[in-house]
Write a structure and sequence with these properties.
Length: 482
């Protein structure tokens, strides 16, 4: 990018890890930097100018694939809608070709010992893309595997390069995939992919970090670079926010904690014998802690038989970075989509901002959020349902578990100035070991008991889902930590 202000200009290079900018120069008195840059840019290769060598325009023979698939009535509605979006007129179709180990049959997870080969995928308009010019730059595609002729899902992003001591998301999926043979987990089926290579068969890395490191010779520079990564998954899912009713919301969130995918069955009712958590299994078996359980990272997979959805289950995805919780996911979705005391009230957007986005100077969450958790109150009040509705009971029970977790903090009245950022959290009592009631959120049993008790009940139908009441609140909103 070139920025011009009066008789001075700067050259800016944007990348996933940041921006590099030149010193300002007077392009009237000294036009040489301007001319040199334009000359070199025009003579540079496409890759040097920032184009991805693994992406090429699709051939004319492939242009009708997405429209044809979008008319396939055997596919779920959300998949056909995504294929229509991929074929948006005026949006170019690309073929992504990259080398990696791949699933042997296109249905089971890839194994570590699978040989590498080059696979090509057709992509169009992404179903999701980040608005930021820096950072992960995530793009999600409903894609077409040109070799196996199947619809797949591709996650394309720039992961943090944290070194060999940190598992990448691909490595996490490979570890979890080892357990699929014995008991399929509630995580997406990882078919293959990994770090993207350039024309020299080297991993595509951001350059900003290297330039900054060179300019700060002898200084402590801990900012990590980023690596271009593509992961291919079997399932094309719905977002959590597309839940059809209160029971599906609770059921899918419960599934995201499940350790085995349920056998296909027409009933969505769960029992106490349902399996361990995907979240729990990852920690217990592989010491992998997800920690980013948010509305954006829980997906709904529709199981289709003969063109009919017979079951909907939840999958937990995005095993890279983390910071939110099951309790907040349920409250967040309920506030946005179900009728309650703040429905149609102008204060709802500001209340959600205070609870989920507002942060004190030290990075902690708002006093309203802390008070609600410490007192065991659900963030949703006056939910329009009977007092013994399963969802209300579930929210209340989870709220009490959080209350027990934070009860070791001494009670304290919070002044109004806390809203303005002067609230200080009470310190926990001294000692190496927390009291027994602090242990509830350390394990899974109490949380699973709460979900199991709610999902075994049958009276779920009285709450009607509403259109999004706070459309400006994004799925990733989870806000600061408590």
């Amino acid at each position: 990018m070139i920025t011009v202000y009066h008789d001075h200009a700067r050259l800016l290079r944007f990348g996933p890890a940041g921006v590099i900018l030149s010193e300002p120069f007077n392009y009237i008195e000294d036009p040489e930097p301007f001319c040199t840059f334009l000359f070199r840019y025009l003579r540079a290769s496409r890759q040097a100018r920032g184009f991805d060598p693994t992406a090429t325009l699709a051939s004319s023979d492939d242009l009708d694939i997405f429209p044809r698939l979008a008319d396939d009535q055997t596919l779920p509605d959300h998949v056909r809608n995504a294929l229509k979006m991929a074929a948006t007129p005026g949006w170019p179709l690309h073929k992504l070709s990259f080398e990696a180990p791949w699933s042997a049959d296109g249905a089971s997870p890839v194994r570590v010992d699978m040989p590498k080969s080059t696979r090509a995928f057709l992509v169009g308009r992404p179903c999701y893309r980040s608005d930021s010019m820096m950072g992960k730059g995530t793009r999600a595609f409903v894609a077409y595997d040109l070799e196996r002729r199947t619809v797949v899902f591709i996650k394309d992003y720039w992961r943090l390069d944290l070194g060999p001591d940190h598992l990448t998301e691909r490595e996490v999926y490979l570890k979890l995939s080892k357990d699929f043979e014995q008991r399929p987990l509630h995580v997406p089926t990882f078919l293959g992919g990994g770090d993207v290579l350039d024309a020299r068969m080297e991993v595509q890395r951001s350059l900003t970090h290297a330039v900054v490191s060179a300019s700060r010779s002898g200084q402590n520079n801990t900012r990590p670079g980023r690596v271009h990564t593509r992961l291919v998954f079997k399932e094309v899912c719905r977002p959590l926010e597309s839940f059809k009713d209160a029971r599906e919301l609770a059921s899918v969130v419960h599934d995201a904690l499940q350790g085995q995918r349920l056998h296909f069955r027409t009933s969505r009712r769960h029992t106490d014998e349902d399996m361990f958590a995907a979240h729990k299994h990852a920690w217990k078996e592989h010491e992998i802690l997800h920690c980013d359980i948010s509305a954006g990272n829980i997906l709904i997979l529709d199981i289709v038989r003969d063109g009919t959805v017979v079951q909907s289950i939840g999958l937990l995805c995005d095993w890279d970075l983390a910071k939110k919780s099951i309790y907040h996911v349920l409250n967040w979705c309920t506030l946005k989509y179900l009728p309650h005391g703040s429905t149609d009230m102008a204060c709802l957007p500001s209340d959600m901002h205070t609870i989920y986005n507002m942060a004190l100077p030290d990075g902690q969450g708002s006093s309203l959020k802390f008070r609600s958790v410490q007192n065991g109150y659900p963030f949703v009040f006056d939910l329009e349902c009977s007092p013994n509705h399963p969802l209300l009971e579930l929210l209340t029970r989870l709220g009490h578990l959080c209350q027990e977790h934070y009860r070791h903090f001494p009670p304290r009245l919070v002044a109004q100035e806390a809203i303005e950022g002067s609230f200080e959290y009470p310190s926990p009592p001294e000692g190496d070991h927390p009291p027994p009631n602090y242990q509830h959120l350390y394990g899974y049993d109490d949380i699973f008991d709460a979900f199991s008790a709610a999902l075994q009940q049958t009276q779920w139908s009285e709450i009607t889902k509403l259109p999004d009441q706070v459309p400006d609140c994004a799925p990733s909103c989870g806000g600061p930590s408590l």
